[in-house]
Amino acid sequence: MLTSRIDQSHRLITSLEKGTWTSRTYREAVLKQIQTVIPYDAYCFTTVDPLTLLSTGAVTEEGIEAIHDRLFMNEYMEEDIHKYAELVLSGEHTATLHTAISAQPEQSPRYINILQPAGFGDELRAVFVSGDACWGYLTLYRKTENSFFTEEERLLIQTWTASIASMLRSTSLTLVEEITSGSPEEPGIMITSDTFQLLSLNAPARYWLSQLRKLEHIGPDVLPRPVRAVSSHLQRKNRAERADDTQLTPDSPSKVCIQLPDGRYLILHASLMQQLVGPDQIAIRLEQAMPQDLLPLLAESHGLSSRERELLGYVLRSYSSKEIAAAMHISVYTVQDHLKSIFAKTKVSSRRELIWYFVSRFQLSDEPAI
Question: Which domains occur in the chain, in start order?
């Protein structure tokens, strides 16, 4: 019976693979399909930068939006169970909150301090991993007066994760062929407090904020989620550094790369501003991503392995096969095998074409970050 239901509902999700979607319209379609099988009262469906696991924008609703700031703080700055990053590493990729805390609710500050006061009694979390990269998170919520999520419902979500991850990946890797004009010439700079209060900004930052709000369909008074994500991540990292706790210090930068509706990519990077008087503040730099910033995404879009990406970096810096072999501690024959694989995946036939595809056509420097 369960197997039959899983097979039937699985087709509801995989049928979406045939459509033409943007990242947002695909997520909205997935939510509608899930609702026909698994009832929920609220949701938050977030895409993430696979390099940093920070939010690049969410599809959500008002009930969650009202507590979203506190959820960000919990995710990046508090100890709790079922953190998204932990689910990515666990290999299970789905979890229900009530099942884990039914005997000891105090195990989860998120439940005690955020969800329960807001009227939610349970959540079902899923992370979407394709290959070695995570492309998004989904959390479904149920009100306290409704039933908890069941193990069967968790398993249903579990069977859909591969298909959803693949689609999130493909809709996130729609790359433009050239830099789109119309972006501010100067970088945007904005200053926020540690509680996400916007304190000051320049004109380019105001422009980029308007683009992010269009992306997320939010009003002018709401700080976009990617801004809150890089800010929360930075505070978590700074707190761990002050405590000299290397286990809690994230290795990744407080940085995220986001695709806008017109195809441009935007880079956000948060930095701590240590005030001489008063509490520390956070500066966030916003600027259009150049193709060298997108090289990791270009490599991902062609399915290059980590070893192939490493080798590509040397090729784009004009290393010879002998020099690459010495740098990577492999034979020249292995270098040639890797090159053949890269040529096949990128549909080029020579090093010159490879360099043109990744560098020359954009008139970039030859110092990529692969």
Answer: 2-172 (3.30.450.40), 188-289 (3.30.450), 292-362 (1.10.10.10)
